[in-house]
Structures are given as C-alpha cells and as structure tokens.
UniProtKB/TrEMBL annotation, chains A, B:
<protein>
    <submittedName>
        <fullName>Glutathione S-transferase</fullName>
    </submittedName>
</protein>
<dbReference type="InterPro" id="IPR036249">
    <property type="entry name" value="Thioredoxin-like_sf"/>
</dbReference>
<dbReference type="Pfam" id="PF02798">
    <property type="entry name" value="GST_N"/>
</dbReference>
<keyword id="KW-0808">Transferase</keyword>
<dbReference type="InterPro" id="IPR004045">
    <property type="entry name" value="Glutathione_S-Trfase_N"/>
</dbReference>
<feature type="domain" description="GST N-terminal">
    <location>
        <begin position="8"/>
        <end position="87"/>
    </location>
</feature>
<dbReference type="InterPro" id="IPR036282">
    <property type="entry name" value="Glutathione-S-Trfase_C_sf"/>
</dbReference>
<dbReference type="GO" id="GO:0016740">
    <property type="term" value="F:transferase activity"/>
</dbReference>
<dbReference type="InterPro" id="IPR040079">
    <property type="entry name" value="Glutathione_S-Trfase"/>
</dbReference>
Length: 227, 227
C-alpha cells in the first residue's frame, strides 16, 4: 500500500526544504517508494484530527495500512528498515547507522535548531547578539568533532546510510548562515548529499507543493480584485 | 560478552541519575544484562581515547565484542532490540515504541534540556527571567499534548516499552522544577517508571559510583592535611 505523509500546506521555510517532511521524502525516494501527500494548514496541524495522527501537532505524520507513525527520525528508521541501501542488514553496521541518526537529531540539531529559532523568535530581544554568539560556539564545537570524524571520507560510516541522510538534513539548516565556511569538509559532505538524485526528487516535490500553495493563496485575492 | 559502558567519573548532576548513562543502565537492567563500567574524568572525556569511542566526547559510550556505540538513544535501541519486553517483535508496535523514543529525545527533551542548561549557564544573564518564561511555555505545550495522549493509561502504548523508558528519563529532569505539578497524570507516570525494580537498580548503581568518586576526591585532601 502506498503510504501517505502529512506535511505543511504552506511551509514556513518557503520551500527551502528545511521542514521535517524533507528527510522522510528523501528516504522514500532513496527506497524507491511512491507516496501520497496530505497537506495541513497551521490551524489544522493543531486540531484534533491531526493530533490523532501526531500527538504533538507537528508535521510530518506517516500512515500506511496498519501503522500511523510520527517523528521524522522514527519514520526514516521505519522506511530504512526495508531498504538495505539506507540501513545495512549486519547488526553492528546497522547500529552505527542508527547512532548517527540519533547524533544528528539529539547532539547536532539542538544548537542548530536553537540558532534558527533564536533568529526568528528572539531577533528583537536585547539578549539576541550575546546568545547568538553562545550558540555559534556550541555549533562550532559539534562541527569540529564531526569534521574530525568525517576526515576525507565521503560518508560517516563507509557507505551512505540513513545516518548520513539525517545528519545532512540537519546540517542543511546552516547552509545560509555562513557557519559552514569554517568547515570545508562538512560543506562538501552536505553538497554531496544534496547532489543525490533521490534528494533532488524529494526537494523538487516539496518545492512544487509550496509554489502551488502560494498560487492558491493568491487566487482568491485576484478574484476579489475583479469582483 | 559483557558490555562496557563509559560514564562520568564525577557526574555533574551529583548522583541524581540525570546523566545520559541512566537510560542505558536502566535498559540493561530491564533486559537482565550484566555490564561493566568505565568512568572518565571531564578531561578524559574530551581526550582522543574517548573520542575514538564517542566522536563528540560525551558520555555514555557502549562497547561489546564487535561494536562500539554512542548516543544513548541508539544504545537503548540496540539493547532493546534483544529484549521483547522493551521493544515488541511485531513491526507496527515496534515502530510506535521507536516513535516515542524519538519524541522523547527530539520533541520533549529540547525545551527541557534548554531549561536545565539556562539554569546553569545563563543564570546571571540579564535575560534569564524572560527566557525562562519562554522555555516554561514551550515545556507546558509539550506536557499538555503528552498528558492528553497518555490519558489514564499506565504507559504510552499499552505495555511498557523503550519509548516509556526514554520519555521518563527525559521527564525526570523536571522533577525538581515544580513544572510537573500542573500535570498530575505525567507526574504519576514518571513515578510509575521510577518504581520499577530495574530503574531502582540502575539508579543505585550510578549513585554508588558518584558517592565513591566523592570519597576518592576527599582522600588526597585528607592526606595532604596530615602530611
């Protein structure tokens, strides 16, 4: 059965592919699986129908015949479990790939996400500059360790895995910040991920949905102009 | 082979069982597995030998014969994979348990951890009170959704799983904040986890290590007093 993912009707990242449906779309593309998309407005996202799928009223949610799933990490892991190119069958290699998924979401993402969030929610606060400097230092700590581990390798553990998919998804938030300029090996690693055909298909699909939602929002305005 | 976990020699939580070795110890106890403990000082934790085990220089690390693993989420998942009482064999139930593990670490923990961190690192900053209020609001949002999902159930998905183990491990950071008083079902859920015999064994083991490290630190001081 074709799974359905629930995503933002109108993503706050304006189609830059930074929302959490992106790693799920990417994993589905790597696994060669078709999927359906349901989009929700911000109001619908916090409503009872969506919270029955996603207890915290977030996107994405994932549905297949006998399973409703939430948390992008868990959804990617579920998809990867059926795709040896994302998650190796051998137990130790599989565990290492999972370690990088958790490292992406629980060690690298927190300061990166805080940095994005502070840029939006705390931009006008008197503490913004000082806190931004603290967060930049925390991010550089993580990037330094990651860069040392990566060395000159293409991927974190030999072959590309769901661990790279998740790590690159997190690091992409830094693309427009200038912080990756200090870490050329990491910038190249992110670009390597973004150049995968499956990434491109996933990116284009989320971008097309955003463009379409913008066009639809524009529609009623035009009509009222001529009414 | 008995696995070895690497933990703080002298945990900054002073034996309150809030460090990230606690969910790993708890999972090992639930699974009925013996383990060895290696403790590292803060300096050793950031040194090359430990970073070979744990690329970000954090605790815990986990070693068994052919596998070195990091990230408490990945370690708990690896242990749980061999223990049906922590991770059900049926695929959909297993995926749901994993969803709660990720929800614990990636949706509930970020504001909870930020709140703890701000209490330590930003206590003297002029922005502390205002930012603390923002973080409390974010935490209450999460707790409200979690409480609604939990309802009157004992555990998040029927039987106790690694999802509960991880969620309760995260929520325990709130025990001393007063924030759980607004959410009696969650406070009861945390207490239910803490009353499991496996939790108690894990807690006592980490506490004993802390007490012992304090005694050893006291030793040289005493000797120098009498030298």
């Amino acid at each position: 059965m074709t799974p359905t993912i629930t995503v933002f009707a109108n993503s706050p990242d304006r189609g830059r592919g930074l929302a959490r449906d992106m790693p799920v779309r990417w994993a589905l593309e790597e696994a060669g699986r078709a999927y359906e998309v349901r989009s929700v407005s911000f109001a619908e996202m916090k409503g009872a129908a969506h919270k029955a799928r996603q207890p915290f009223g977030q996107i994405p949610a994932y549905e297949e015949e006998r399973l409703t799933l939430f948390e992008s990490g868990a959804i990617v892991l579920h998809i990867a479990g059926h795709c040896p190119a994302l998650l190796p069958a051998e137990e130790a290699a599989r565990a290492r790939a999972m370690a990088w998924m958790f490292a992406a979401l629980n060690t690298v993402e927190p300061p990166v996400f805080d940095y994005s969030l502070a840029g939006v929610l705390e931009k006008e606060k008197p503490w913004h500059d000082e806190r931004r400097a603290l967060l930049e230092a925390r991010i550089h700590d993580r990037l330094g360790d990651l860069s040392r581990h990566l060395g000159e390798a293409d991927w974190l553990e030999g072959a590309f895995s769901a661990g790279d998919l998740m790590m690159i998804s997190v690091l992409r938030r830094l693309n427009s910040t200038g912080l990756l300029e200090a870490w050329p090996a990491i910038a190249a690693y992110v670009a390597r991920g973004e150049s995968r055909p499956a990434f491109t298909r996933a990116f284009d699909a989320q971008r097309a949905l955003f463009t379409q939602s913008q066009a639809q929002q524009a529609q009623p305005l035009k009509e009222s102009d001529t009414a």
